[in-house]
Protein 1
Amino acid sequence: MTETLICKKSELQDGDRRIVAIDKDEVGVFLHQDRYYAYSNTCLHQGGPACEGLIIAKTEELLNDDKTSRGLSFSKDQTNFVCPWHGYEYDLKTGECDSDRRLKLRSYQVIEKAGDLYVVS
């Protein structure tokens, strides 16, 4: 297993991300609610930079009992990151594609050593 330096722990604040080159690949590393998440930066749709777009709360449609729409709302539980090429959204906590949960970005472990953060590949 290889450990690739991301940055000093103090350099990454909640809501930040870093893109790290590992050999010929790139990995997006996120700090969200005091947890680290790392995923392949290659969108499953057409290979765009999946981890480089907006980080937003999932948009949810609110439905009446008869299934008619009451409008849209932002999720209090799920945050997504959006591939800037075509808008594919991925769950920040799982790497799953929001529109098809069978699709999932490759995930990586993030570790801390002596105040530095590393991606394990």
Note: The longest strand covers residues 69-82.
Protein 2
Amino acid sequence: MNISIRLLGKDELKLVRKVADIVWPVTFKEILSPEQIDYMMEMMYAAKVMDKEFDEGIKFYGVFDGQNVVGYLIWGHYDGAPQTAKLHKCYLLPTYQGKGIGSMMLKTAQSMAREAGYKHLRLNVNRQNAKAIKAYDRNGFKTIETVDNPIGNGFFMNDYVMEADL
């Protein structure tokens, strides 16, 4: 494996959707209904949504094994708390999980946020996503809040808000 992480250009955002189309159904099949997965995919990964986030300063990074995209992390400023950045998304293809790459991605996001002057990195994780919660715990994130956010169509995101000091 030759793993690298690099900033994506706006014209490469389709790589994020390519990975999400594989990761999301696997990650959430036991947690969310197929209807909610489909709804959230369009809510978060439609080209117009990602283009708008990109234009607003959200940073999209691709994780590559050589030339092949195998994951992504997306982060940016968080308006809800001072000196806090938000890790919006951090996903890796199932065949690459369990090899330390996810921890490398989290450490990279923490380092980038610290270098940008932030003191904290915050994220939301589904309360039933035990595998991700364990990974975040291992990488210095602590649960600070429990939230139930309505997202439309009668769906909710039932999350823990976790934060790491940088």
Note: The two ends are 29 Å apart (CA to CA).
